[in-house]
Amino acid sequence: MRILLVLPVMCLIGSSPQMIISGTNQPDTTIVTHLLDGNTAEWPTEKFVTNKATKMEYAADNDKQSLFLALNVSDKNVQKRIMQDGLNVYIDIKGKKKENRGIEFPVKMGNITSIENLKLFGFSDGEPRIQSIKNEGTVNIAIAWDTSYVMHIEYSIPLKMLEETVADLNTKKISIGWKLQESELPSITSQHVPTTTTTRQVGVPAGTRPSGSSQGVSNANSNTSFWTSHTITF
């Protein structure tokens, strides 16, 4: 059984998953229930896909209000890269691979990297802007490590931020991209990982502190990125 570690100075939303029952006493699989708590246990395992270059498991889902994204990061070097330099998530509602709308997390703020904050860009005028990871009516993020020191990150993105008329998103196939940023740290490819495949400032657990559908993976410009697709239905 997975037990979340409570990180110092870090507030995570915790509650028990709820069973949604229809009028016929059968689970209503058309209703999505995701808890933004940094625990991906309620996500069906079949929704996750593994990116071979980074060993990150990722999944996407939605209900009538929000797009949900989840990441399981087991590789300690990848965790360090995320904590040191950040991870960008891109959302292209036209199904392309444009990087003009997305979320940066964690956020560099001076000489520190904050997991209390995220940066939005391309969603509206006045961006990029930095905001709290918990802010009603906008993008929210939860991050935690389990007892095996696997990092879990969950995102909740209101559909109204993607399209003015949410109904227009129904049955639309969108693209979701992930990019590991990198500065002076050695690239993942230097650790004999394939370069191409198909497919709040707080304390962190020991061993994770920084030390210095088809998908494509690339290491252009010293970044590791990959894309997936998700069809929004409700």
What layout of secondary structure does this protein have?
Layout: E1 49-50, E2 57-62, E3 66-73, H1 76-85, E4 87-92, E5 102-105, E6 107-109, E7 112-114, E8 117-121, E9 129-132, E10 140-145, E11 151-158, E12 173-180, E13 217-218, E14 224-231
Antiparallel strand pairs: 1-2, 2-3, 3-11, 4-5, 4-12, 5-8, 6-7, 8-9, 10-11, 12-14, 13-14
Sum up the structure in keywords.
234 residues, five-stranded antiparallel sheet, seven-stranded antiparallel sheet, single chain, mainly beta, 4% helix
Order of helices and strands: EEEHEEEEEEEEEEE
- Strand proportion, as a percent range, falls in 25-35%
Q: Look at the helices and sheets and give the structural class.
A: mainly beta
Give helix % range: under 10%
Low-confidence stretches: 1-29, 185-203, 206-221
Residue-averaged pLDDT: 79
Intertermini distance: 31 Å
Radius of gyration: 17 Å
Give the number of DSSP strands: 14
Summarize the main sheet: 7 strands, antiparallel
Shape: globular
Q: Which quaternary structure do these chains form?
A: single chain
**Strand order of the biggest β-sheet:** 9-8-5-4-12-14-13
Supply the number of helical segments: 1
